[in-house]
Design a protein that fits this description.
118 residues, mainly beta, seven-stranded mixed β-sheet, four-stranded antiparallel β-sheet, 0% helix, 53% strand, globular
């Protein structure tokens, strides 16, 4: 059974940087597309960005130019580097994986809280 565990969240100030990690176990990591989503209180879940099996990335408009996704297939880990953080980036951040060789996100982590103070 594939499991995703996020880490790296915390409380930072506006303008700071933070890197989230998502460790994947129970599957062949290189066969999964990976993504990051976030959900703020009272708001719908929002797509942050994704990285496919080939390393191609795409991002939501709210984070383009500030956030970077990368993956390390040797460590079974995907990362979300967040720079120039804003208070509106405050949310629970979730890691997600597609089905094997698929494109739809099927597997989810439990999330990690990111809080950005002004």
């Amino acid at each position: 059974q594939v499991q995703l565990v996020e880490s790296g969240g915390g409380l930072v100030q506006a303008g700071d940087s933070l890197r989230l990690s998502c460790a994947v176990s129970g599957g062949t990591f290189r066969n999964y597309g990976m993504g990051w989503f976030r959900q703020a209180p009272g708001k719908e879940r929002e797509f942050v960005g994704g990285i496919n099996r080939s390393g191609f990335t795409n991002y939501g408009d709210a984070v383009k130019g500030r956030f970077t996704i990368s993956r390390d297939n040797a460590k079974n880990t995907v990362y979300l580097q967040m720079n120039s953080l804003k208070p509106e980036d405050t949310a629970v951040y979730y890691c997600a994986a597609t089905s094997v060789f698929g494109t739809e996100y099927k597997i989810w982590g439990r999330g990690t809280q990111v809080t950005v103070s002004s």
